[in-house]
Amino acid sequence: MSYVIVGGIVLVVVVLAAQFLRRDPTQAKQRPYGENEGEKQEPVSETHFFSLREAVRTRQFWLTSGMFFCFGFCFYTIMTHIVLHAIGLGISSTSAANILATIGGLSIVGRIVLGSAADRFGNRQVFIIGFILMAAALFWLVPAKELWALYLFVVVFGFAIGGCATSESPLVAGLFGLRSHGLILGVINLLGFIFGAAAGPLIGGYIFDIASSYQLAFIICAAMSVVGLMLTVLLSPVEKR
């Protein structure tokens, strides 16, 4: 019933809100931001816009896919298994569920704070910060046994994933332009984030079935965060030849 209610709210609110979106400022009888009356505007150069075929041939495409894979791997491994891990430590199911909810709450804070930082310092820098925080939180999670320690983990982890999630789309747009942004972002998310989000929970669950512990799975997640950090550091602007 909870799913039915939430789904109904989303269906009504999203569909209604979408009717008020306008793609072109002229549809709202406005001029594009920065355009002055009486001044002839220079045509926008599209030399920095990439098609999917051109983007795939760049190292930045595959570095970004690798970053998103590491992000999705860590994100969904934790989201899938953190409640069961907490219950296995003797924590009540209610408190364990609240841990998961706290991740969502702190991700909101991360989206706002790190999203603002991305506008000022860049989306690549936000991913660097996010992976550093994720790695630190995941290494902390390995020996954490008490409820307070788990809450400290989710505060840092939730904040980090919120910032990274906010920076995904603008990072890709900054690298490859907007002409094929939707297609390029979709393919990078498929090859990266979605594959990582599928592989992480499966590997984490398989490790638990064998070892009856999530510690190795969390260590792997921490290592994936470090790999993601290294890929982000290697990421540089791409120029179209």
Describe what is shown at a glance:
The protein has 241 residues and is mainly α. The protein is built from eight helices and no strands. The chain has a domain of 164 residues: Up-down Bundle (Growth Hormone, Chain: A), CATH 1.20.1250.
Order of helices and strands: HHHHHHHH
**Mean pLDDT over the full residue set:** 89
Give me the number of helical elements.
Answer: 8
The CATH class of one domain is identified as: Mainly Alpha
Amino-to-carboxy terminus distance: 55 Å
Low-confidence stretches: 39-47
Describe this structure in words.
By secondary structure, the protein is mainly α. It has a domain of 164 residues: MFS general substrate transporter like domains (Growth Hormone, Chain: A), CATH 1.20.1250.20. The chain has eight helices and no strands. The termini are far apart.
